[in-house]
Amino acid sequence: MRVKFVLPLLIPAFLSIAKASSFDIHSKNPQDRILAIFYLSKSKNPSIIPRFCKVLLSDKNKEVRKAAADVLGYYGNSTQSESCLLKAFGQEESTEVKYSILSALETFKKRKIGKLYCKVLEGNYSVSLKREALKGLSNYLFCREEIENILKNKSREFLTDALFAVSLRKDNFPSVKAYLSDSDVEVRKLALKYFVSHKPDKDVISTIKKRLIIEHDPENKALMLEILLSNDAKIDENLLLSSISNGDVAKKFVLRLPFIRKNKFPFKGIKLLLKNENPFVVSSTLTYLGTTEDKKYCSILLSYLMEDGNETVRNSAIWSVSKLNCSNAFDYLASIISDFNNDDRLRLMAARSFLSFDDSTLKEKSGVLKSLYESEILDDVKEVLGRVIKESKER
User: Fold this and answer.
1) Of 108, 127, 160, which marks where a domain is finished?
2) What is the 3-state secondary structure of 261-300?
3) Reduced to 3 states, what is the DSSP secondary structure of residue 43?
4) Contact criterion met (CB below 8 Å) for 105 and 135
5) Cα–Cα distance for residue pair 73/221, rounded to 1 Å
6) With contact defined as beta carbons under 8 Å apart, do 311 and 336 qualify?
7) Residue 51: CB partners within 8 Å, gap ≥ 6?
8) Residues with Cβ < 8 Å from 386, sequence gap 6 or more?
9) What's the domain count of the chain?
10) pLDDT of the chain along its 395 residues, tens only?
């Protein structure tokens, strides 16, 4: 997790910017040096790296060194930047600057950096540095035993960072399951996120089923439903429907729908989400239907095309009917485009959706496409229709 620098020290410098013609990276004023680093970094020009490196290694002001470390993290593909940060970490005495260096190194995915994070976690370093090292270790498979010990020993000062790291790693950590029932809602959330990406065993599934009844946090409830549905765990239908009937849970759950395997979400659940009063919930559900590859949902999607309702909802329906290549979808979309009373953004979305149709449909409807193109008055829509006609001929 990359932490970009936003330094309070910059604020007075910005206030005085009108009085200064330029900022010198060698200025006697630390604020001017920081501001110079800030502006120079905007170019992303790798030729500036040696200047930032010199500042990091030799400037006497720790705030200036922190700024230099932060911007060197922007050059994640530079061996020069990486080497400088590693060298600086070895010689730096300030914990704050070391923290910025570790944070900057998260953009470099190199084995030796993973080993550095492991060295920090195992060594005699401050709590803040160990916590940052744990975040960095989310990108590596080093220090598995040390992290597992943190989880086993329930060390609260490192716990959330350890859970965050293991949720992004590919290796397994058996001790995570104990935190599914933790009293801290954020700890439970991180434990659940681990099992979203790691195969849960029967005990974990059983625990999640029991917790689903009593869990009060909407996001946690949504994560539980995702885990259970994705792993073919049988959920009591009434419990499932009761869970997503809660508006806050529904908003969180529809964000998880794209990650649930096709056709694992029951039809009754879909109908309930489509009745939700929140347009975001409805549009997200319609988008999910387009990913199922199941044309049984076409009638539902087509009904939303012609409704005078929320534009986002109709856009989602447009995307999904074209994705499923529903029968009569082309004609519905053509009617949306030809009606100039419709919102222009909706008409543009309908025109773009033609690009998703198969060759046979576009060739069959070539006459309709030509008519739509010739009568169109909006340049953006006309341009897309022209592109559809051109691509249908080239396929």
Assistant:
1) 108
2) CCCCCCHHHHHHHHCCCCHHHHHHHHHHHHHCCCHHHHHH
3) coil
4) no
5) 36
6) no
7) 25, 40
8) 373
9) 2
10) 444 444 444 444 443 443 333 578 889 999 999 999 999 999 889 999 999 999 999 999 999 999 999 999 999 889 999 999 999 999 999 999 999 999 999 999 889 999 999 999 999 999 999 999 999 999 999 999 999 999 999 889 999 999 999 999 999 999 999 999 999 999 999 999 999 999 999 999 999 999 999 999 999 999 999 999 999 888 999 999 999 999 999 999 999 998 887 667 889 999 999 999 999 999 999 999 999 889 999 999 999 987 777 889 999 999 999 999 888 899 999 999 999 998 899 899 999 999 988 888 888 999 999 999 999 999 999 999 999 999 888 76
The continuous run of DSSP H or E covering 39 comes out as helix 30-41
Q: Work out the burial of residue 22: count CB atoms within 10 Å of its CB; fewer than 13 is exposed, 13-18 middle, 19 or more buried.
A: exposed
Range of the domain at 53: 1-108
- The terminus-to-terminus CA distance of the chain in angstroms comes to 43
Indicate the residue type of 340: F
C-alpha span between 52 and 57 (Å, rounded): 9
Among 108, 140, 158, residue at a domain's last position: 108
Other CB atoms within 10 A of residue 3 CB: 15
Q: Are 323 and 314 in contact (CB under 8 A)?
A: no
Residue with tokens 């997503």: 244
